[in-house]
Amino acid sequence: MPTNFTVVPVEARAGVDGDGSGDDAAERTEAPGIPPGVECERPNSGDGTPRESSPFIGSVDMERDSYYEGKNMALFEEEMDSNPMVSSLLNKLATYTNLSQGVVEHEEDEDSRRREAKAPRMGTFIGVYLPCLQNILGVILFLRLTWIVGAAGVLESFLIVSMCCTCTLLTAISMSAIATNGVVPAGGSYYMISRSLGPEFGGAVGLCFYLGTTFAGAMYILGTIEIFLTYISPGAALFHAEGAGGEAAAMLHNMRVYGTCTLALMAVVVFVGVKYVNKLALVFLACVVLSILAIYAGVIKTAFDPPDIPVCLLGNRTLAKHSFDTCAKVHMVNNGSAIVTTALWGLFCNGSSSSATCDQYFMQNNVTEIQGIPGVASGVFLANLWSTYSDKGAFVEKEGVLAVPVPDESRASGLPYVLTDITTYFTLLVGIYFPSVTGIMAGSNRSGDLKDAQKSIPTGTILAIVTTSLIYLSCIVLFGACIEGVVLRDKFGEALQGNLVIGMLAWPSPWVIVIGSFFSTCGAGLQSLTGAPRLLQAIARDGIVPFLQVFGHGKSNGEPTWALLLTAFICETGILIASLDSVAPILSMFFLMCYLFVNLACAVQTLLRTPNWRPRFKFYHWTLSFLGMSLCLALMFICSWYYALFAMLIAGCIYKYIEYRGAEKEWGDGIRGLSLNAARYALLRVEHGPPHTKNWRPQVLVMLNLDAEQAVKHPRLLSFTSQLKAGKGLTIVGSVLEGTFLDKHAEAQRAEENIRALMGVEKTKGFCQLVVSSSLRDGTSHLIQSAGLGGMKHNTVLMAWPQAWKQADNPFSWKNFVDTVRDTTAAHQALLVAKNIDAFPQNQERLGEGHIDVWWIVHDGGMLMLLPFLLRQHKVWRKCRMRIFTVAQEADNSIQMKKDLQMFLYHLRISAEVEVVEMVENDISAFTYEKTLMMEQRSQMLRQMQLSKTEQEREAQLIHDRNTAAHAAGATRSQAPPTPDKVQMTWTKEKLTAERHKDKSAGSAAGFRDLFSLKPDQSNVRRMHTAVKLNGVVLAKSQDAQLVLLNMPGPPRNRQGDENYMEFLEVLTEGLNRVLLVRGGGREVITIYS
């Protein structure tokens, strides 16, 4: 790809040197023409063409030509602030550099990027290939690979290495696709995973990767100490074995003490001079390369000159050569004239004399000596093909050697046998081996220092994996072909007088391997202690895990001091385990978890086919990523199922913590795209028809009213919603602003922010939908019709009772309410109206003993039964008991009604008290008659007020039309001579008032006389009678209830009686504290069937 380019401007531009020409251009575009009075000569370039349109470069007079700059783009001048010109964008891209920035995203670091940047220097070989090589080849190769080959055999070892290397190769392919999908700033694998899978997965996997790197540091330190105490200086041990069988415990204590001291020393080195660690990386790499070359050289040498490394066997049991030199029971002295027992005899017998009592197995079996490294041409390869697993404490025995077994042998400790220190099996060896193939992220972690990261990361990483895989596989074959099986299974080289097995194979000296492996493991530990704190600092600075933010700070130069302290503390826990074989499976889990999510990220992005997924690396496929993900998961459970579950539990806990408490980040991640695809699929599935009655639940549209400051008037409505829904189903919080969208855009945005903030406070999980409409009535109707998407539409509308419907300053507020009731009925949606909503409990309150009373007057599909059941699921209403009242007429059998209702509730599995209230027919009281009369008088007055308003509007329109005609006539007269016989009418305020009252005075007086001579309508009297009677019964039974649910009667078919309908509802609920009026949607919502 081109790394630099030049944009040649066609027209000369003033201020090219960056002296603020942008501001001048902006000022000039305000006046695209040349100001009057300014003489501007257009210079010619020799071709007769004015300079303004000349295609040649080099202006003679920049100042004179500056008036014309930007005129070609004048059509877009108002968009320049938000949408820069392409030339400006390309100029920024040309000066871009991907220097290491920690985890601050490149979009947020424009100011610091303007300073001069040093050119990236590292290419594929130095920047990616060698670091990966150094990280992959390490402690397991030198200390455990021979033992793995001896225990598992060549075939199963080949299988172990093949599985692990295939896993890392597939992960590298997925990582290459992600790394080449755009510029990857410094941050490596954490950056790639978090930006591909989102902050939750990114934080969880980033912390797992951090823990894996930290435990890797502990493993390298333990390996360093094991090499030092076992092969370099065994005499430096502080603890020694007390009694027989105490060697293992003493070794663990030595590892803890020396490991802690080494960790402290390394932490000080990293804190003081991290740059020296980076400079020494090449030295550590040279140690690794020289050690591997020494191994291959030693293998070649064994083909024609095998080394003389004798191994002593007693029967078929391998003996540890610590306390004896001669592999024999006795030896001849004085030219064979005398037989003298050896030191070996003294170890198995209670004396040095030939008549001493000896171990029975020692007496019945011969001592033999074999070559530990017979060489490639010896044919030992066939004997090492198959596995030889054993239990802890078992003898390391050579197969094919005759031995006399001893019945009921008591395994006396203290005898110089080579014993297995742990129980070996296939899955254990997988867990111990896997850390030797980790380190494939080393190149991506240096992405900020690479010359071309999109080319170097895939090439270098895959080449490093192929190289190391070939090294491992060839070493397995060569170890099996050169080394005797009992020596391979001798983990600490006890049969070789405490020498490193792989060192004895090397040429020219075993010390090449010992010293090389010592420095390489020491360097790997330093690298881990250098990289892990920076990874933690990157996660902390992203702000996705709040409790880690303190670890984002460090020294003035950016070194992560606090993160280094935490890393050292976690690393110390690994060192206290003190066993390399126990620490290795732990870090295997964390690395496998990280690799699993790298593959998942690539598979998700590939399957979603997001427009931004355009990797430059083309050799990937979602099936490869899926295979790599499956292999990672399988290896996790193969290594250790309980470690795997524990690692997944840690990642899950971190995920949920970030989800609920972490900062919200929008990184355009694949999980969000996956959620959108899943939502689309689910919406298409639920599109086919309404849900079954068993699956019905209220999907609520909450209608909120806003005040002048766009704040919510009744926040308790959202509290009630969360209590009713408990986070289940669909909740849409809607509101309407009156006006036009262009004028009210800012207010609408502020109102939406206020609603979302309140939803967060009230813990209402749902969506916010705000509509700007020319009238509140139309906006409410639009919300009821169009809120939701596809099958995810609301089926219930929840709103507050309009308390101010009687106020004189707002005489028509009730019309919106009644029309909303009609809209919900027409849309077959249920309606819930909460009266006295401000008296409803908040989510923090806990109602004590009380009742939720249901007054079941007419059947509404079961809404009245379902709502109390849902409310009692919430802790606010949990202690309230449910009572159901129904009304019996004179012709009804109230006793039978009660039995039937109890049986109905039993089948519904709802526990509630049942009571049947009898309403006796009686005469209409004078109070009812008078209340109806007052209601109708008020309605008549409102109609006259509405009529007056209509007439005012009609007369105002008439005045406007006449004024328009008068202006038109005046314009005509200015062109033609005035005509004296035409007289212009002028409407003054007095004339208008007189004209309006002239015809209305008589009719108006008659209208108000009729107002006081009204007789109430008989149907209204009956309705009022029902409302008064029912209100009295409800007050008598439910005045102390915590909540009363009532059937809401429908509005009248005749729109003339809408205001009377409001009065009926007011009378029906008068005197009650908390009321929920319920109107069903015309379908059954509850069933007795399973």
TrEMBL record:
Membrane-topology annotation of the record: Multi-pass membrane protein
Residue segments, region Disordered: 1-60
InterPro entries xref list: AA-permease/SLC12A_dom (IPR004841), KCL_cotranspt (IPR000076), SLC12_C (IPR018491), SLC12A_fam (IPR004842)
SLC12A transporter C-terminal domain residues: 715-833, 834-1090
Keywords: Cell membrane, Chloride, Glycoprotein, Ion transport, Membrane, Phosphoprotein, Potassium, Potassium transport, Symport, Transmembrane, Transmembrane helix, Transport
GO terms, biological process: cell volume homeostasis; cellular response to glucose stimulus; chemical synaptic transmission; chloride ion homeostasis; potassium ion homeostasis; potassium ion import across plasma membrane
Identification of the protein by name: Solute carrier family 12 member 7
Native species: Cavia porcellus (Guinea pig)
